[in-house]
Amino acid sequence: MRKLFVAGNWKMFTTLSSARQLAQGIVDGFGENEKVLVGVFPPFPYLLAVAEIVRGKTIVLGGQNLYPAAEGAFTGEVSPTMLLDCGCQYVILGHSERRHKIGESDAFINQKVHTALNAGLKVIFCIGEKLEERDAQKTNQVLERQLTTGLAGLTQEQVASVVIAYEPVWAIGTGKNATPEEAEQAHTFIRGQIGQMFGSANAESVVIQYGGSVNPNNAESLLAQPNVDGVLVGGASLKVDQFSAIIEAGMRVASAS
Ligand code: PGA
User: Fold this and answer.
1) Does the reported pTM lie above 0.90?
2) Staple 131 to which of 12, 170, 178, 215, CB 3.0 to 4.6 Å?
3) How many C-alpha atoms does 154 have within 13 Å on its Cβ side?
4) In order along the chain (257 residues), what is the average pLDDT of each group of 10 residues?
5) Which residues line ligand 1 at a C-beta cut-off of 6 Å?
6) Closest atom of ligand 1 to CA, residue 236
7) Architecture of domain 5-256 in CATH?
8) What is the rounded distance in angstroms from the CA atom of residue 183 to the CA atom of residue 4?
9) Whole-angstrom Cα distance, residue 8 to residue 53?
């Protein structure tokens, strides 16, 4: 049975004080909850402050990126060791904003995935097609390429520490989410690909989140899909009441199943 995973990607938002308030609000509501896994991904400068607030609670902490080296002369970058040192258990890799706004390649993301897992971090590995790719019926082709290149060379054991986030680029920050049926279709395809690459046990256990304009109104119907095992939330994760409503939707779905 896969545990639902609701994660908040704060992107380049919050201040030190609003990050603390947001983390405290989530801890107050869900810090002892075991039903749904809840994660927060603050900007690097606020990781330590948020780590103090979530310490000893059931909320997990993660970074939004890393550089694929333990240390070195890489001005402006952050290593997996540093993330672990700050209390992170997870890191988001391959986010569409890094792929398409910063220009990260599949091969570079693959290096990051290896470095993160070798260091002992768990990975939320993001994939998703652009609108023109969906319109050209190339969604599955894009997902297959991102999976085969991004997860190349991983062992079956390592894949157990990878969460996949299906985030169609056209749905991110646009207010236009994939329908539950569209999400379910993509997730089923992704699970099948994981099966081909890493065997049926990994396909069965891999957690696949949906991301892209998730909000309190659409979360429950998305999470109710059999192959949607969680959500990666951007905008709506910045407000305690909205993020809480999404977690509560997850708790209802978990209780019903
Ligand atoms: P959004 O972002 O919820 O604001 O669409 C999701 C994401 O980029 O992870």
Assistant:
1) yes
2) 170
3) 31
4) 96 98 98 98 98 98 98 98 98 98 98 98 98 98 98 98 98 96 98 98 98 98 98 98 98 95
5) 9, 167, 172-173, 211-214, 232-236
6) 3
7) Alpha-Beta Barrel (3.20)
8) 15
9) 15
